[in-house]
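Quick one: structure for this chain?
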Amino acid sequence: MFYMTVLPRFYETDAFGHINNTVIAGWFEAAREPIFRIFTPELDIKKLTLILARIEIDFVAQTHYGQEVILKTGIEHVGNSSFVVVQEAWQSNLLVAKGKAVQVYFDFDTQKSDRIPDVYRQKLEALIS
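Got it. Here's what it folds into:
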């Protein structure tokens, strides 16, 4: 599992005084960076062979300004051409959000999904939580 810590910024709060729900999706995307590095260690966007097919987020509790949030990222399942990333957000030892993202190995020349090469598959499978 990968870990990332974020400190919520004031502008990420909403009218109710807690972190806006749209912010969590952005944090989860940023926390998937170590997964992206499996496919392109230098994070060259032109070499990244992944597309995002689906995200889902469950908001379990309110997230507040001024307290660090720990983001946990792992792999749930690896299929032929896609894999499921699982993520959690924790604040003050409380689970505040959890989610999943389906990433697809994609051939931009053919505009179709492709089988995940074994070299990547092995690295992803090693991360299954």
